[in-house]
Amino acid sequence: EDQVTQSPEALRLQEGESSSLNCSYTVSGLRGLFWYRQDPGKGPEFLFTLYSAGEEKEKERLKATLTKKESFLHITAPKPEDSATYLCAVQERSSNTGKLIFGQGTTLQVKP
Amino acid sequence: DSGVTQTPKHLITATGQRVTLRCSPRSGDLSVYWYQQSLDQGLQFLIQYYNGEERAKGNILERFSAQQFPDLHSELNLSSLELGDSALYFCASSVGGGITDTQYFGPGTRLTVL
């Protein structure tokens, strides 16, 4: 069964303290891996799409990387405004649709 | 602001009732997706429509149905509501049929079933 597991469930950081979030996936073939950010009570906001192992993408303090079994979201020198839930989702290669399989998310809190 | 709009923002109703959630996709997007987010299940894919046709079905209950109209807006109908249907319902849209398309999410409708 296709599965997406994110760890840790929750992460507390001091402002400026860098860390990484993990997303491991089990699918028959990966078409794409997506990272979203979700603030409480709001819709997920798109961050990155990764397609193949070795690929990396960056946006401000965030950098996403992909291997054959997992993806990491690295947060460098985070600020309080980076506090949110980060969601990872995968799209299967065998799917001809847009169906995304989401992980449970990592809730990040950055304290000043 | 993603450009995807959803109404209503909040909905409170009783068990056994029927409700309709509405979604307008971003201008130019042909696909609409519906997702359910609950505390224990996370974000679950329900259904996708592409240019008026059903494209994919996920974990959507038989009590739930959806459609996409010629102007591309979509409605999700939930009937015979149960307490367990209380959740956030999100609509997303994308330009094409979905394969590697970026999905842009709306602000959601919070459904509370009492």
If you had to describe this structure to a student in words, what would you say it looks like?
The complex is a heterodimer of chains A (112) and B (114). By secondary structure, chain A is an all-beta fold. Chain A has a single domain (3-111), classed as Sandwich (Immunoglobulin-like), CATH 2.60.40. In chain A, 0% of the residues lie in helices and 58% in strands. Chain A is built from no helices and eleven strands. In chain A, strands 2, 4, 5, 9, 10 and 11 form a six-stranded mixed sheet that branches. By secondary structure, chain B is an all-beta fold. Chain B has no helices and eleven strands. Chain B has strands at 5-7, 10-13, 19-24, 31-38, 42-50, 53-57, 64-68, 74-78, 87-94, 104-105, 109-113. In chain B, the strands form two sheets. In chain B, strands 2, 4, 5, 6, 9, 10 and 11 form a seven-stranded mixed sheet that branches. Chain B is globular, with a radius of gyration of 13 Å. The mean pLDDT of chain B is 95.
What is the overall silhouette of chain A?
Answer: globular
Overall helicity of chain A = under 10%
Run of helices and strands of chain B? EEEEEEEEEEE
The oligomeric state of the chains shown is heterodimer
Q: Rg of chain B to the nearest angstrom?
A: 13 Å
Which class do the helix and strand fractions of chain B yield?
Answer: mainly beta
| Count of all domains of chain A | 1
User: Per DSSP, what share of the residues of chain B sits in E-state strands of 2 or more residues?
Assistant: over 45%
Gap from first CA to last CA of chain A: 41 Å
- The low-confidence runs of chain A, each spanning 5 or more residues with pLDDT under 50, are none
Q: Mean pLDDT score of chain A, rounded?
A: 95
For the largest interface, the chains and their residue counts are: A-B, 26 and 28 residues
Helix count of chain A equals: 0
Number of helices of chain B: 0
The biggest beta sheet of chain B is recorded as: 7 strands, mixed
Overall pLDDT of chain B: 95
Computed Rg of chain A: 14 Å
Overall morphology of chain B: globular
